Amino acid sequence: MAASYARALLDVIRPSLPSASDPRPEVNQQQRIAGILPEPCYYMPLMKNRRFTGRRSVLQALEEMAFGQDQVNRIALVGLGGVGKTQIALQFAHEVKEKHPHYSIFWVPTLSNEGAERAYVEISKRLRVQKTDDSDDVKELVCQHLASGEAGKWLLIVDNADDPDLILGTEQKRGLEEYLPLSDNGVVLITTRTRQIAVDLAQSDVLDVQEMDREEAIHLFTTSLIQKPQLGNEELVLELLTKLTFLPLAIAQASAYLNKNKAPIRAYLKLLEGAESEVSKVLGREFGDNTRYKGTQNAIGTTWIVSFDQIQKLDPLAVDLLSFISYIEPKAIPQSILPVSAPAEFESAIGTLCSYSFLARREEADTFDMHSLVHTATRDWLRKGERGRQSFQDAISHLAARFPVEGDFNYTLRSEYVPHAMRLLSRNDQERGDDTYTLLEKLGWSFARDRRFKESSECAEEVFKWRRSFLPETDLLRLRAETTLGIAYADRRQFEDASEILSHVVKTQSGILAEDEPLRLIAEYALASVYMNVKRVEDAIEIFEHIVDVEKHLDEEDDSRLSSKKGLADAYLANGQREEAIDILQHIIKVRKRTQDNNFDCLACHYSLGTALLGSGQTENAIEIFERLQVTGMETLEESDQLRLANEHSLGSAFLQLGRIKDAVPIFEHVVEMERRILPENDSSLLKYEQELAHAYLVDGRTLDAINILEHVVGFNRRTLPENDQWRLASERDLAAAYQKVGRTREAIEILERAVSAKSGILAYNYPYRQEFRRLLLDCHDKLKETGN
């Protein structure tokens, strides 16, 4: 009997013991019968999550690290609060229980020191580890037992290891880290929100847990929602999940709300898109979940409060950064926009926020993103902690000082700052002060530089309204705001408003500023440009010549001096002084080429030169310039940009002069189509473009199309332009010619006779038009005699 038992025992022992990953339960059972392995025991206070879905890649990685060829003793799951770390660990624990039944499994929640102590007491009971003395530390006893090998194979899960003092310890108290066993017989799995703890405990054996992918999120929502018919609207479901950023806790919270209230998905979406205070209420609404700890904060809006409080205690500078970021755009945050401090302290603060997954550093290293729901929760935390107003004012003051203007070393970063300034300024619930309007002014300048004229004028109006309310008429800040508003109106082609404002500014400044004061010269330049657009060309020339004379002491390459010369050249061109204009423009282009300046001003200068050449009969040379601009510069501008459209139009005009009508018509059509989208129907530029398109149609034999446009143009011209205006005369001539072609001869004669009548004197000083109208009138009379029509 004893011999047969010994042989049976020898048969069990003789083979090498199976590896930890050996799935053969019959072998383990034999070993337990033989007394070699202890019975597995379990302490898992959370129920299995029956709705758990997805996360296969993370679970497979855990399986490989814990039971694969290169086993590790410690693994850390790190990620944002609410991303599902606890649920992944819980699912992994149950899979281990099924796949590796010889493993004991223990769970230690570390939300508090008391909770961790209770867990160790429960584990000691399962392991039958008892104190021998009242001074014994049960955590130490459990740790020693698991490390000894007597406990067999085990998995120890340390959940929510987020508090550095509790986990890593302080000078006064040992941390839980010292009670985590190290043994080849077991694996410690840690879940934490902070990378610092993850790396301290598991070194490089860290798995990042991200939000769910689209399919996982849809499946979780599908299994959680009671009202299944709502799932039929896939587009609406996806919109909601995207709004919730595919975050599992947010999805579970939304499902609970919809289930409890029998609410439609669209209603929950509307709540999320409402006022920020309402969004905070929705995201802060607690809900029951038996797969989470009792008494803990289940709502997505409150789950990060513990982390915020920890950061506030550990790293005040990180809280300052968190506060600032919560008021700007959460995505594409340039490092240079952030409040700065000593480099080492700054990097430490950034590291803290990244460690908690509140901030993610992009590959380019100097750009960051913040989770959008964290963004909202941070502001709610600041507001409840009575830091909201001061944090907002600090953010405004910082960005007002930091936002780059032309001439600053970081001006190239301007476009990266714009969305953040817009987000900050969009908060209408906060009191506005000087810094707010300084930032608004700088933002308006940036919009103008980017030729976003609608936005720039809106900024200028707000700033001027504010400064006018408390600053005297001669205050320089008020005058600067008034000048900016005048320029903004001119950019939007509101020339009457612009002229009124700028005339007042120039008059006021002439009495208080020296003639070479930059602010005065800017206003004068802007007024001269407006005069150009309202056909006060001689007045414009007078101002431009004065500015050029005042600036002659500046360096030849000075941008202001070159811009003033460009304005004078355009004025000369409008006045028929083409040779003078061409000389100036060629000089400017030569200088800008030397300085490798290829900005908007340089494009405009080339365009003006092309226009001058076209007007002087050098059509081929003009076409060469216009076509080169189309492919080497204008493509950088918006399709609706006025300079780009003007260049296209001039190219079409040049083609028309050469008889290339089939090339000209599509260009004119495109320009008119674009201008009709952005300009009012009575805008002078639009009317001229329409008139040229109609003329091209007339030449191309599309007479009815021409009439359709010309009747509209002539109607406006007669109401807004003097009788002897050349554009009005040209439109009436073309309409008369079109009427003649389609047999509406009497209507053509009526137009022509009114113009050539000696009594009217309309053509008295316009000999070319007088001859053309008379010739066309004779043709009409001849046709009327022949046909009677």
UniProtKB/TrEMBL annotation:
Q: What is this protein called?
A: NB-ARC domain-containing protein
Start and end residues of each NB-ARC domain = 64-228
Residue runs in coiled coils: none
Q: Which GO terms describe its molecular function?
A: ADP binding
